[in-house]
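Priority: medium. Attachment 1 of 2:
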């Protein structure tokens, strides 16, 4: 079938596309930034259309038989209104184009009780599709367990970093988690499912969140965790705690936790009869996710989606583009290492390797960013060796990769302006190679100019040592290989 996948740059969409292709479906991807799909292994096997679910979708829907709707506006202030409008627009466009089916993944929720804003919005979007003239398969899942998912990362870091766990009341609510591979199996199977209804999807285990943490610890080989109940810890306060302890920022943690306030257990299992197959148990799902994470074989991550409020404009080529000041910090260093070896160091930067200068200074900057609601430094990287355009890298976003030559990063930390960091590699005139580094900052208002004035004295230390240490790291391995 001819499928349109919205949200193809996201966690589930990026995994669904290759599985649809493997089943013989033709896939078109609707994305706001096509460049983010440039480096994915299946990029040449799909048609990519630039657009947004709030735009005119006539061209995106042309000749499409099935729409997989995997987008939501979780971070925006009026995310419920934005999601409703986007769903209604998509449903109208699908009806006009003669689409045969819409497949949507919503959230598992109880009936007859007030829902969290996040779950209420997911439910409303499903209802929009079910009321439309186009038949819809609305899958409803609770916590998804898979390498790189926000739910799994939150669970993982809370358990691993807290030998004594402070537990609010909601950790005793029952949840029916599901492995990401089973979610994807259902999404692929729903492509050919003749129905117009909701389907609850879940794994074989029903657990409390506390049991999920304790069983995670056992599967991961961690010492037994101690539990300290704190009933007064509200979902809002819990999200601040998650923001400090895990890589998941408060903007994502809050709706996730608010959803856990409800008991989310499947009320029916009809999907198992229509799409039979053995579902992965919780312990096995955790084991698979941990193996993928440890082997650096994570297909997609929650941080792959753009951070709302972060600048999205490319690096300006004209310094006068804004009609105002553009501050730069440019440095260069020659090294005896080959360009190939120097590039290995450049592309491997960040994550567990760090930034080759004053780890404490980078850590403090990351903590400060978290305190003001930013993404912080703990998002890490998906792969320890290779970077793709559009990926998150700590508190940066990869804007451009010219393999062997250029790595350009766009800042997503909270700053009064827009910032980029360029790392370039060139062949040396007399052998070896040259490393060039450029930081660019476009201030916003007086606060931006004051910010640059405050941090500028530290750049000589931080960026200066960064240039030296990157060159030294490349030469160290060169000399090691020689010996």
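Attachment 2 of 2:
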């Amino acid at each position: 079938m001819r499928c349109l996948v919205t949200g193809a740059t996201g966690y589930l969409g990026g995994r669904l596309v290759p599985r649809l292709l493997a089943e013989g479906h033709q896939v078109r991807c609707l994305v706001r930034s096509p460049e983010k799909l440039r480096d994915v292994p299946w990029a040449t096997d799909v048609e990519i259309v630039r657009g947004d679910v709030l735009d005119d979708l006539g061209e995106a829907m042309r000749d499409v038989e099935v729409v997989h709707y995997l987008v939501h506006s979780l971070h925006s202030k009026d995310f419920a209104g934005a999601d409703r409008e986007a769903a209604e627009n998509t449903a109208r466009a699908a009806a006009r184009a003669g689409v045969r089916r819409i497949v949507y993944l919503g959230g598992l929720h109880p009936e007859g009780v007030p829902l969290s804003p996040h779950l209420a919005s997911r439910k409303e979007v499903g209802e929009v599709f079910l009321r439309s003239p186009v038949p819809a398969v609305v899958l409803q899942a609770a916590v998804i367990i898979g390498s790189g998912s926000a739910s799994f990362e939150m669970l993982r870091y809370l358990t691993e970093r807290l030998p004594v766990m402070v537990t609010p009341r909601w950790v005793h609510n029952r949840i029916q988690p599901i492995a990401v591979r089973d979610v994807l199996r259902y999404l692929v199977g729903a492509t050919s499912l003749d129905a117009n209804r909701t389907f609850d999807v879940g794994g074989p285990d029903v657990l409390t969140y506390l049991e999920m943490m304790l069983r995670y610890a056992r599967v991961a080989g961690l010492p037994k965790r101690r539990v300290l109940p704190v009933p007064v810890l509200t979902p809002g306060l819990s999200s601040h705690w998650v923001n400090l302890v895990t890589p998941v920022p408060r903007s994502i943690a809050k709706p996730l936790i608010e959803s856990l306030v409800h008991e989310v257990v499947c009320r029916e299992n009809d999907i198992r009869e229509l799409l039979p197959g053995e579902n992965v148990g919780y312990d096995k799902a955790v084991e698979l996710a941990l193996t993928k994470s440890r082997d650096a074989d994570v297909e997609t991550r929650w941080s792959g989606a753009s951070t709302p409020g972060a600048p999205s404009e490319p690096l300006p080529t004209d310094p006068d583009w804004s009609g105002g000041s553009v501050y730069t910090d440019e440095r260069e260093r020659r090294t005896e290492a080959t360009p190939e070896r120097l590039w290995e160091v450049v592309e491997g930067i960040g994550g567990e390797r760090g930034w080759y200068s004053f780890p404490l200074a980078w850590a403090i900057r990351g903590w400060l960013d978290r305190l003001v609601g930013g993404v912080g430094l703990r998002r890490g990287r998906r792969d320890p060796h290779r970077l793709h355009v559009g990926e998150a890298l700590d508190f940066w976003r990869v804007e451009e990769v010219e393999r062997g030559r250029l790595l350009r990063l766009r800042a997503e930390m909270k700053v009064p302006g827009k910032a980029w960091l360029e790392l370039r590699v060139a062949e040396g005139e007399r052998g070896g190679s040259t490393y060039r580094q450029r930081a660019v900052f476009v201030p916003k208002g007086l606060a931006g100019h004051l910010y640059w004035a405050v941090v500028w004295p530290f750049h000589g230390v931080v960026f200066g040592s960064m240039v030296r240490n990157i060159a030294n790291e490349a030469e160290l391995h060169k000399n090691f290989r020689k010996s």
